Amino acid sequence: MGRLRRFLRRLVNVMRPGRDEAALEREVASHVLLLEDDYRRRGLSAAEARRSARLALGGIEQTKELHRDARAFRWLDDARRDATYAVRLLRRHPVVTVAAGLSLAIGIGINAAVFSVVDWVLLRPLPYPAPHELVRVFTAGTAPVTGPSALTYDEFTTFRRATAIREAAAFTVATRVMAGAGIDPAHVVVARVAGDLFVTLGVYPDVGRGFTPAEMAASAPVVVLGHDLWQRRFSGDRSIAGRSVLIDGAPHTVVGVMPFHRGYPSEVEVWRPLMASEREDNDRELSMIGRLRSETTVERAGTEFATLAQVAAHGARTAWADDAQRTDIANVSAALQALFAAAMLTLLIACANVAALVGARGVDRAGEIAVRGALGATRARVLGQLISESLVLALAGGALGLLFGRWALTVLVAMAPVSIPRLAEISLDSRIVGVGMAATLLTGLAVGLAPALRLSRLAEASALNRVGWHRTTRRPNGRRALVLGQIAIAVVLTTGAVLLTRSLRHLVTLDNGFAADQLVAVDLYLRGAFNGDARQLFRELVATSEAIPGVQTVAVSMRLPTQVTGLRAPVRVLGERELNSPATLRPVSPTYFDTAGIPITAGRRFGNTDTEHAPRVGIVNRTFVRDLLGGRQALGARLTTPLIKDAVSIVGVVGDVTPRGEPDRPALYVPVDQLSIGSGYLIVRVQRDPRSIIPALTTRLRTAVPGLAVDRMRRVAEELEESRAVTRFSTQVAATFAGLALLLSMIGVYGLTSADVSTRWRELAVRLALGASRREAVWTVMRPCAAILGAGSALGFLGAVSVGPALTSLLHGVGPADWFTLTIAPVLLGAIGMLAAVLAATRVLRADPAATLRSE
Asked: For labelling, which of 264, 445, 500, 594 has a CA lying 20 to 30 Å from the CA of 638?
């Protein structure tokens, strides 16, 4: 207990050094008086007694210092003193302090924000028990070879018996309409589940329960709601279990609610058992997730799945397993890795900038350090003080950086595409703060250690005589190397930003084959909302929508022009063999091509006379003519397909639709009256802002079909924007990093030139006094910067060439070895760098060599 009291007393004395100072003063004074009395009794005079007492005590201040060391932790007290001195020193140099602090704040803040995203998405395991045991199962054909695809129900029942897994589930995701008492009809994403998804994930409903085995076997009409849907549509009612809702007009009973952010897949809002009819059709539409046995590896499980698939399909198919988390992040992994690399490069530039600023300031402190050494300071003591100054600067920049990082994370998440998993969970939590503080301390040591080691050598006894020589002759080679590295990194980042910008510009200016501007699309999902003749309803919806002021044309289509996939069927020319490949059937209303802005290149459009009782007609696209007809005349050709009873006469040819630059497929457009569809899209072209007609259009549609869900009404251009979301996000972030890197690099070039001018000021003054022109003097200090800019640009060019292929998956319409981009970035950095060097060197033009030499 006594040791604990002494420890706490010492700790308090460190934190409050003046706490017992008055008592120490009185105690030392009493010792001095006692010694004086003793010397006076020995016959010394008062002055001699006072002098002898002080000599005997060994020095008043030295004695006090020894007592202070005994009452506190000396190393901790030294650290406190160094920190206090560092704060005072930083306040005396506000320009350098602000520049270094902001550089660190930007570097650490950006990295904190980016690391938060990377940590939540790429590094943190899925939020389920033993997430490393979860695998996704895929299958593919071997004869012929196909890409990864979903499973059939029979394949799932075969794979779930594999010995490598304990539990397994399969699901297929589709959009349905949910309604009910007090609930407006709305589209929801429904997962139809086979197996036991909740046991497989190890997550169970927070409210209510999951599905029982009997409900799964009987395909009972029960549902489990997602947490967000429960909050949004049912106001978080915890008595929801047992309530009835309508899914596509059929009643279902709610039995549970999933926990917050624990549903799988993440986009699903409702789960229900797979129906018997859906199991029996055996369509290839199921995604399988399984939980491995604890002793089984992913590779072993994949081998067993492959064997089972080959046996079941007689060698025509194979299968494999992959880590569930790696599968979920596959689409965004490359973009986030590039983002993290850019953030780290920005931090390196910031560190180089701070190191250069700290090193430049050290030139002016050479005399101070030499004097300290001459007065008795050891090299270790000076080194500790200098490192403390760097740590204080880093901590200030780190604290500001974490505040900046919180704001940057908010902006980053707002800019991020919705396809990034776990986006709603991302936050700057204690784990990120801890990593940020550790990075701050490491940054402080990294930027301060080398300058501190160099300066601490001046604390040696012989250093005082070398200070003047050191200040005028030593070249800042370390700072030059740092600036060279800054330039190279900035060239790499700028090259990546320009590549992504050109890729985004290609996507934005791309001819999609249709005019997306001024188009509004409404999802006409009619199942459970309308039971009559859909063709008559479509005609009524077109007529009522065209009556809205500002509407130009209206059409109905089974698919949007942004969707090149759809209903596929084999086709052949009447009397000839079957064509090489199937075509995509696209039922549309007569005004579709005018509404979508797809040009007719030959023949005619559909007309109002092309009804269900008229002869069957069709329009094909250019790809159909090229690939299936071999380029021969299409007009007048008669085609047959199993999905249309009579032969179809081709009456027109239209251009291809190429949304997002993807090639169109052979397509056969048919009148929607001649190939009836149960659902589709209402496409409206307006004369002004598409959003202005949405309220009126919503009212008209709800009046025509009260049970119609109208929550999916949006501009067609938005869908194209979403397809560019990852590229746009990467471009915006890369451009931001490139701008920061450029700014920090130019600060580094400016600081290097300024430091060169300061270090060589006496030399320049002598040159000017001996007759050198000011232009020659300016070029003397600019020549090293020009060499560094050239070397850094060349090194950055090589770096850009080597890292360019990593961006290939993010580029569209431009290659990673685009010579224009690879050339423009070094030239741009070099030009701006020379401008920064010129601005720093203009001090020489205002120099008065006589005044400088007189001051020396």
From this structure: 594
Q: Dihedral, CA atoms, 575, 579, 584, 587, nearest 10 degrees?
A: -10
pLDDT at 809: 66
Write down the pLDDT at residue 57: 63
Least confident of 120-134, 168-182, 201-215, 749-763: 749-763
Percent of the chain with pLDDT over 70: 80
Q: Do 243 and 254 meet the contact criterion of CB atoms below 8 Å apart?
A: yes
Phi and psi angles of residue 185, each rounded to the nearest 5 degrees, phi first: -55, 135
Mean pLDDT of 737-752: 73
The Cα 184–Cα 187 span in angstroms is: 10
Give the type of residue at 668: L
Place of tokens 């060698």: 315
- SS3 assignment for 676-735: CCCCEEEEEEECCCHHHHHHHHHHHHHHHCCCCCCCCEEEHHHHHHHHCHHHHHHHHHHH
pLDDT at residue 556, as a whole number: 94
**Residues 240-252: what's their mean pLDDT?**
91
> Token match 């700290």: residue?
358
SS3 523: strand
End-to-end CA distance of the chain: 63
Contact (CB, 8 A) for 61 and 25: no
The mean pLDDT of 566-579, rounded to a whole number, is 78
SS3 397: helix
> Does position 469 have pLDDT exceeding 50, yes or no?
no
Per DSSP, the three-state class of 21 is helix
Cα–Cα–Cα angle for 486, 491, 497, rounded to 5 degrees: 125
| pLDDT band with cut points at 50, 70 and 90 for residue 338 | confident
Measure the CA–CA gap between 697 and 167, rounded to whole angstroms: 48
Both tokens of 832, joined, read 């701006």
Q: Are 125 and 131 in contact (CB under 8 A)?
A: yes
DSSP letters along 124-192, please? SPPSSSSGGGEEEEEEEEBTTB---B-B-HHHHHHHTT-TTEEEEEEEEEEEEEEEETTEEEEEEEEEE
pLDDT score of 472: 42
Q: Which residues of 563-573 are buried (b: 16+ CB within 10 A; e: fewer)?
A: ebeebeeebeb
3 state SS for 561-572 = CCCCCCEEECCE
Query: Does the pLDDT of residue 592 top 70, yes or no?
Result: yes
Which among 286, 236, 246 has a CA at the least distance from the CA of 270?
246
Q: Tell me the C-alpha to C-alpha distance, in Å, between residue 297 and each of 135, 158, 292, 305, 340.
A: 10, 19, 7, 12, 30
Lookup: tokens for 642: 């199993």
What is the mean predicted confidence (pLDDT) over 338-361? 75
367 CB contacts (<8 Å, ≥6 apart)? 467, 471
Alpha-helix runs per DSSP H in 457-558:
467-473, 477-508, 534-546
Which alpha helices (DSSP H) does 365-461 contain, by range?
A: 366-374, 379-415, 430-456
Interatomic CA distance for residues 313 and 319, integer angstroms: 11
φ/ψ (deg, to 5) at 71: -90, -5
CB atoms within 10 A of CB 708: 22
In three-state secondary structure terms, 580 is coil
Local structure of 252: helix, strand or coil: strand
Residue 649: strand pairing partners: 617, 638
In the numeric block, the tokens 């200090």 are attached to 781
Instruction: Summarize the confidence of residues 708-716 as an average pLDDT.
Output: 88
193-231: string of b/e by CB count within 10 Å (b at 16+)?
A: bbbbbbebbebebebbebbeeebbeebbbbbbbbbebbe
- Max mean pLDDT range (147-151, 191-195, 717-721): 191-195
Residue written as tokens 């060279």? 484
C-alpha 657, offset from chain centre: 31
